[in-house]
Design brief:
The protein is an alpha/beta fold. It contains seven helices and 14 strands. It has a seven-stranded mixed sheet with strand order 1-2-3-4-5-6-9. The protein is globular and about 50 Å long.
Length: 253
């Protein structure tokens, strides 16, 4: 049963991840308010995080390039403006496809070191037979880090933490300390089994460690934005952790 469910979940993720964005008029960017200043944006691809305030708009991930104008529209509709900062949680195209568009708008792009390297040199995801060429310089992160980095803006301390060898080798989670919100990137898939990009440094052990880190940062009121799926919390994340640990033990045997 677990093998069948993994296969179905992987197929669903493959469809979402590899689909060329077409019929753009049918894709709608929805904004879900998490706090007074933080929103989760959904559309096609990974969930975006949005933090608005007087110091500027802070965006987490950017989905696919053809959706950039719709994303800007969603941002302005909740009181934000063209993003001052953009952080990529990892290199996959459904999270970084809009980098070039935002870079041309003057947005300063941040990421872990490995994300810039993957974007610069290109990548190949064997499971999906997906080859991606290196991106233009304007789409590359301008500021990179090896472990973590903090932003002090809009009345909050935003702590970006590298989670090594989890979904990939360049994943980061974003912790809004005052707001008690965490954007988990693709370390967390809410509602179905995750895809782990082993060829680019991912591992189930790293996913387990990453989820434990998120749980340690959380309390009963923490709201968690997953890379895919609806908003979640610490209790649901505990169930996700049990699933990962069970799968790991069964596969190890």
């Amino acid at each position: 049963m677990i093998t069948r469910t993994i296969t179905i979940s992987l197929f669903v993720f493959l469809f979402v991840f590899s689909q060329v964005v077409s019929a753009q008029e049918e894709v709608k960017i929805e904004s879900i308010q998490v706090t007074d200043q933080i929103y989760m944006l959904t559309g096609q691809g990974g969930n975006l995080g949005l933090f608005v305030g007087q110091d500027g708009t802070f965006l987490i991930d950017d989905q696919f390039a053809p959706l950039s104008e719709k994303i800007i529209g969603a941002i302005t509709s909740v009181g934000g403006d063209s993003p001052k900062f953009l952080i990529n949680t990892h290199f996959h195209g459904d999270h970084t496809g809009g980098n070039e568009n935002f870079g041309k708008r003057g947005t300063l792009i941040f990421s872990h070191n490995n994300v810039r390297d993957r974007l610069r040199h290109g990548s190949y995801i064997r499971e999906f037979d997906m080859k991606r060429s290196g991106v233009e310089d304007i789409a590359l992160p301008v500021v990179t880090f090896s472990e973590d980095i903090s932003f002090h803006l809009n009345g909050d301390e935003v702590h970006v933490i590298h989670i090594p060898h989890s979904h990939t080798d360049g994943d980061s989670i974003i912790h809004f300390r005052s707001a008690n919100v965490i954007h988990a990137g693709d370390v967390v898939f809410n509602g179905f089994y995750p895809f782990i990009d082993v060829n680019h440094g991912g591992s189930i052990k790293g996913m387990i460690t990453g989820v434990k880190k998120i749980i340690a940062l959380s309390d009963g009121n923490t709201q968690i934005i997953p890379g895919h799926g609806p908003l979640t919390d610490k209790a649901e994340l505990g169930n996700y952790l049990k699933m990962l640990e069970t799968a790991y033990e069964r596969l190890r045997k």
